[in-house]
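Reply to dn_fold:

You asked what the input looked like. This is it:
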Amino acid sequence: MHTEKEKSEAFLRFLNVLDTLRVKCPWDAKQTNESLRANTIEEVYELTDALLADDVQNIKKELGDVLLHIGFYAKIADEKGQFDIADVCNTLTDKLIFRHPHIYGNVEAETPEQVSKNWEQIKLKEKGGNKTVLSGVPASLPSLIKANRIQEKAANVGFDWEEKEQVWDKVKEETAEVEAEIKSGDKAKLEEEFGDLMFAIINAARLYGVNPENALEKTNRKFIKRFNYLEAKAKEMGRSLKEMTLAEMDEIWEEAKKE
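and this is what came back:
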């Protein structure tokens, strides 16, 4: 691994190259916050793909791409006289110190759960911070991730089940309500009840220490792998999936599960 001096030199080298490109490269010179935003989102998703695949080389590459965007936004702000990359680093460092009183102060927190609860309380007290417990949850988060964050934040201020096993009664209750709306034929109410059921299941995952986003993505990937196997086998047989019976597809699906 690199020394502290080498890390500092590498970061400064990156900033110097970015400064040069901003002046000399026609594409880099014309970029704005608005033009970069969509690409930033794409880069973060590419990083998550690399993380899920545990692809070390790609993780390193994608982290670099995300860092480029961070540097770019700071450079644009610097040009406008708003702030620079040093302000970004110092603001972050100050926040980390302030939010870790169990390290830099006299607060005690010996478990990750205690740290999380302290974290939420501290954020509410910060100057210019979130005014309500849930106001810090970005509106544009994907719904599954948002539901999990909402539940985590509520739990950190004490709004949670007394015993985690109680959540299963809620899951059963919501399942029954979905079944009732299926029978009633009310599509709007059915959508609402499906949402309540999914919210309850996400809550159950949280209570049992499972990240629902990661769990669902693993299932997505497992399904894709098995379905691709099914499709390839059908092609080998000179058949299309549409002309195969469900029983025939199930037989190949069972094979796929053993792969």
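The chain is about 75% helix and 0% strand.
Hope that clears it up.
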